[in-house]
């Protein structure tokens, strides 16, 4: 069975990158930072989505770490399907004409749907990765830099895919914020 890759989060305090890593490590670092420096509000972001994460920092370091430690993935009970291949049964709702078309395909509905998904991923993969990177960067950018000079112009450049203009409009931003937004704006390799 594959090992799950831990989700990475990045924390900021007053426009400076505090730490990055698995959520339980980031949460403890944020707790320590708040204990050492009560002014300022730490912000934590998922590097996958760019969305901010609200942390419950009650209790000591052990309680906080335990709260955000990822448990082992749920193992579904054995049953129908092809578990060695990782096949998962789920419900799909289609119109009768779609079911008719799928049933007429070689290999049946499941094979036809898998082929359609693979073709869509192959044909739209680069476009989808660019859109996801843009959205991820915008989520973090709007929280970290929404009130900074050049934000509106930087947003327009991000959505236009104009990297040079984006960098130019972020020039006055804190270095860590600028670097993080640019990191998130890079599409994941396919």
Describe this structure in words.
- This protein has 190 residues and is mainly α.
- The chain has two domains: 8-68, no CATH class; 110-185, no CATH class.
- 51% of the residues lie in helices and 9% in strands.
- It has seven helices and three strands, in the order ββαβαααααα.
- A three-stranded antiparallel sheet has the order 2-1-3, with helices on both faces.
- β1 and β2 (16-22) form a beta hairpin.
- The longest helix has 38 residues, at 108-145.
- The chain is flat, with a radius of gyration of 22 Å.
- The two termini are 22 Å apart.
- The mean pLDDT is 86.
Q: Mean of the pLDDT scores?
A: 86
Number of strands: 3
Shape: flat
Which sheet architecture does the biggest sheet show? 3 strands, antiparallel
Give the uncertain stretches in residue-range form: none
Radius of gyration: 22 Å
Query: Main sheet: which strands, in order across?
Result: 2-1-3
Structural class: mainly alpha
Percentage of residues in strands: 5-15%
* Helix count, DSSP H or I runs of 4 or more residues: 7
Helix-residue proportion: 40-55%
Can you tell me the number of structural domains?
Answer: 2
- Please trace the helix and strand order, writing H or E for each element: EEHEHHHHHH
State the oligomer: single chain
In whole angstroms, how far apart are the ends? 22 Å
